[in-house]
Write a structure and sequence with these properties.
Elements: E1 6-9, H1 15-32, H2 39-42, H3 45-53, E2 57-63, E3 66-76, E4 79-87, H4 96-108, E5 114-120, H5 124-132, E6 136-142, E7 148-155
Helix pairs in contact: 1-3
Length: 163
């Protein structure tokens, strides 16, 4: 049975669950790139708590009482930068990630011109998934760990005036 996730702002008390889900979700990427030191895997509990207390917006998805996913975003000028989208491995493919992405976009759509994020340039499944959600590759860069990253953006449609 699939339980529709409830999306709500996360708070500091969610930090441990967020970190657990994040680490489980990013293991596939670590295996793909043969790098167990990807930033989502080395982030500490104190760093997650700081994000939850700081300027970032963090949303959590819960199915029943269980945290099954999270996403972070922060506004930088006219851009909402999305990061650390993570879904528990046993919940992937059930719409949790899409629900989180739509929810975080809805929070900022009236304030920004674009959404931006990074994913591994060799992560074909992620690239296809983001493409289905309207994100396009606009460039590449190499991360501090030497892994090539794809920068994706989604432009916000201008509001229509019916006047």
């Amino acid at each position: 049975m699939i339980i529709e996730p409830r999306i709500a702002p996360a708070d500091v008390a969610d930090a441990g669950e967020i970190l657990t889900v994040q680490r489980a979700a990013y293991l596939v990427e670590a295996q793909r790139y043969a790098d167990p030191f990807l930033p989502p895997l080395t982030e500490t509990l104190d760093e997650v708590r700081a994000e939850l207390s700081g300027p970032a917006t963090v949303l959590a998805a819960r199915a029943g009482g269980r945290l099954v996913g999270s996403v972070r975003a922060r506004v930088d000028g006219d851009t909402a930068r999305i990061g650390r989208l993570a879904v528990a491995p046993d919940q992937q493919g059930r719409g949790v990630g899409g629900s989180l992405l739509r929810a975080v976009e809805a929070l900022f759509v009236a304030r920004v011109r674009r959404f931006a994020l990074f994913t591994g340039a060799e992560s074909e499944q992620n690239l296809r998934w983001y493409d289905r959600h309207g994100y396009r590759v606009v460039g590449h860069r190499t991360g501090h760990d030497g892994i090539r990253l794809a920068r994706l953006e989604k432009l916000v449609s201008p509001a229509r005036s019916d006047a």
